[in-house]
Design goal:
332 residues, alpha/beta, Nucleotidyltransferase, domain 5, 2 domains, 14 helices, globular
Length: 332
């Protein structure tokens, strides 16, 4: 039974313009499989047999998603729920009743539960199954790439040291300190199917075998993956050695020719880049739209937990942008 509208609801419904936040949360409300995700959380969620009854698993999941979408801390998302009507509507919290928004401590415990139980990986794997069942994963080809996520370099903390699991790496003429997010993306549709998180100092070529699917025949990558087929771990595996690695060459090998006619080398490199650009959009959503450009937690395990959640949300975001999302959800 739907709750009765308050004066604030009626006033907000009379607004002349809808914000992008309203539209985004409304679309996410449609595409997220709430019943399935809540079912994955409930086996690890407190039963409430002792002490104060816990908040609903779906309520806490909604709060956790808001924190990931808008790059908010536990305290920040709690304050945002009280400040923003769009957040309160998405949370389905009624301030007129006795129920209030969950506090930051409750969200921290819920996030710890997801990390220890590995629930976010279940979300990500379930999203892959859903996309595969509806023909949105073409198989046969994978795009691999990695991006650096900065970590705090300050030593003004209790340990007087940086995070020991994060390391620095030089890229170009600049040094970076943090983690490296590796992603394997379907070459045909651009959906993420594999995720890995390592220290920034780990070479992106070392993680390629973990991002390739069993039925992949072609792998695309940028110039950083040049020479993948010659690596010992690739040559020793019959499946990996049979894959066609189509990586972009370095600029000095395909400079524009001054000879008349078509520059076929440049044309081939452009076609590789055209396919490989799908993975760049995935990182754009993670780092620019979701605001995940700096790690929030210490240690690789917690950040990998968040990476699984973010990549599952990226797939949902791409699904929401497609024109067939309503038909797909109706069929599912």
């Amino acid at each position: 039974m739907e709750r009765q509208q308050s004066i604030a609801d009626m006033e907000y419904a009379s607004r002349k313009r809808r914000t992008k936040r309203d539209e985004f949360l409304e679309i996410m409300e449609e595409v997220i499989p709430w019943s399935e995700w809540t079912t994955l959380v409930e086996p690890y969620y407190p039963r409430g047999k002792r002490g104060r009854p816990p908040r609903g698993a779906e309520t806490m999941l909604r709060m956790y998603l808001l924190a990931n979408w808008f790059s908010l801390s536990d305290e920040g998302v709690e304050d945002a729920i009280y400040d923003s009507y769009a957040f309160r509507k998405f949370m389905k919290v009624d301030f007129l009743g006795e129920e209030q928004a969950p506090d930051a401590t409750t969200l921290c415990k819920f996030r710890r539960l997801l990390n220890e139980a590995g629930v976010t990986k279940l979300f990500f794997d379930g999203m892959k199954v859903f996309l595969d069942q509806h023909g949105k994963l073409m198989h046969g080809g994978t795009i691999v790439d990695a991006t650096i996520i900065d970590a705090p370099t300050s030593t003004k903390n209790a340990d007087k040291a940086r995070d020991p699991e994060m390391h620095q790496v030089k890229k170009g003429n600049q040094w970076y300190f943090g983690a490296r997010l590796h992603a394997g993306v379907d070459a045909g549709t651009g959906y993420v199917h594999s995720v890995e998180v390592t220290a920034a100092s780990v070479s992106e070529r070392n993680v390629v075998p973990q991002l390739i699917r069993e039925d992949d025949e072609v792998v695309y990558g940028d110039a950083g993956y040049t020479g993948m087929s010659k690596r010992p771990e690739i040559q020793s595996d019959p499946h990996l050695s049979a894959i066609d690695y189509r990586t972009n060459t370095k600029n000095r090998f395909h400079r524009k020719s001054k000879a008349p006619g078509i520059d076929w080398d440049a044309r081939i490199e452009a076609q590789k880049s055209r396919v490989r650009s799908k993975v760049e959009y995935v990182f754009l959503v993670i780092k620019r739209i979701f605001g995940y450009d700096k790690v929030r937690y210490r240690g690789l395990k917690k950040n990998k937990t968040q990476a699984y959640m973010l990549c599952a949300l990226v797939n949902l975001y791409l699904l929401a942008q497609s024109g067939w999302r309503r038909d797909c959800l109706a069929a599912g």
